[in-house]
Amino acid sequence: MSAYAAATPLTAVSRAHCRNYARNYWPFVAPAGIIVAAVIVFPWIFTLYMSVHEWRVGSPMAWVGAANYLRLLTDDRFGWSILRTLYFTVLAVAFPMLLGVAAAVCFSRDFRFRGLARTIFIMPMMATPVAVALVWTMMFHPQLGVLNYLLTSIGLPPSSWSYDASTVIPTLVLVETWQWTPLVMLIVLGGLASLPSEPYEAARLDGASSWQMFRHISLPMVWPHIVVALAIRTIDALKAFDTIFVISNGGPGTSSETINILLYLEAFSYYDMGYASAIVVVFFVLILMISLVLFSLRRPG
Amino acid sequence: MSGARNYRLRRAFGTAGFYGCVLLLISPAILVFLWMLSLSLKNEVDNMAFPPVFIPNPPTLANFVDVFEKNDFLTYTINSVIVSFGATGLALLLGVPAGFGIAKSRATKAAALVMIARVTPGLSYLIPLFLMFQWLEMTGTLWPIVITHLVITIPIVIWIMIGFFEGLPAELEEAALVDGATIWQAFRHVALPLARPGITVATILAFIFSWNNFIFGVVLAGRETRTLPVAVYNVLSFEQVSWGPLAAAALLVTAPVLILTLLMQREIVAGLTAGGVKGG
User: Fold this and answer.
1) Of A73-82, B17-26, B136-145, B269-278, which gets the smallest average pLDDT?
2) Interface membership of B76 toward A (CB under 8 Å)
3) Is B188 a member of any domain?
4) For residue B53, is it within any domain?
5) B22 and B132, same domain (yes or no)
6) Looking at the structure, do residues B91 and B39 belong to the same domain, yes or no?
7) Using the beta-carbon criterion (under 8 Å), do A117 and B26 form an inter-chain contact?
8) What pLDDT band is residue B25 in, cutting at 50, 70 and 90?
9) Residue (of B123, B218, B150, B133) closest to A277 by Cα position
């Protein structure tokens, strides 16, 4: 009887607690929610609104319906910027993924100085992109740059690097690979570190080679991590701005003008805000679609 | 006998090969930073020499002196410090409780919103915010830059804190609630002290990605409100064509971040592995 009496208020409390479980936490989220609404959600909505208006800074705003979007369809410069962005993205995803997975396999082994080596390896992604891009620009200089000296000293022809339309995008990919391979490595390394050791012991007893163990044990088990790395790398490559802006600024001519660079020019050089907003909307949809496709790869693996 | 020796030989070669691979992996990073250092410590004649001079002889600090004397580098440094500390502090104040609330109420939609913010290109926030700051007449102050940096720091903090609060055992907090504590008290005295490692990780990453940010400053900063990355690009690369001071300035801008990475590598690795965060 007394036990029952003692139990009753307790269940009542926990039931009341359960009922209010979700609602009680809103004061924690609200302040951040307000700021996020102001600096993140408001810009999204305002951009949609702007994209159906014609507005250059200084002149009145006018409703133009879908005109900005129709203009995008016939704008060759925009079309080329999409193709360039895709070209850049494919390369700037492929190289960091291959190298990053290889590096993760290396760093998953225990060896002396592993901590130090890993720290040095992630330095490029932590360094200020603008600072690093300026140093690369000096290294790419066709006459005085150290890279052409190194190429010619081992008997290879010098390159024009970022100073020629045909080599500028591969050059930018080189910098992007240098900078972002570490992020791929870290994400995949996180996956490799969480693997159990039993399958490897069993495989070793059965006489499997290192490659076979990697191909048939590690790879399938870290597949979800590889897909996450792939998705993040793709999104970041699509959004790449700092290094392109500093090293080539879209040039020579328009040969490295990606969507992001064109967007910057339309908005903050030509001040064509309506048209730039339409570019943002299309760019955003493109990124969202690609990321949804990539994240859906996660399940079947 | 010879089989054993063969095996040992192969093993030694394997180990040497492995260390060779590691060296190959880290050498691009080492070489670029060493070249940056070399450029910053050489005089103008050596920097323009071909074939290049690799080791500064004698090394000179003239480039660093130049950076501070010929430019308002101190102002830009102060700007960067104010912006990065401000944006990180505000993000912690707002983002840590939000991460707690989202984790405890399992608000997956709020988490998805944070993820979409991560996916959106930084430039796309700038058109509306640029117009809004003009309209509010805030241009010319550091406020627009601090506020736009929240676009980077808040998602980083919330994202990392969700992960940490989800990982905490719920029993401790439940016990506090059963004992009559309010949810606020349970957060303040139980969850918050336990989440300190998470807060450290979030602080470091938010600070670094705010410090490194270029895109918001390049659009919003005026002459007096430039942050360091913008100053290095705008002032130095245009007004000074010489490589020495430019490399010295680049090194000064990125040095705090590199030192922080060296000191805090464990926390940084933990945070990046968990979230794959990156600003901008």
Assistant:
1) B269-278
2) no
3) yes
4) no
5) no
6) no
7) yes
8) very high
9) B123
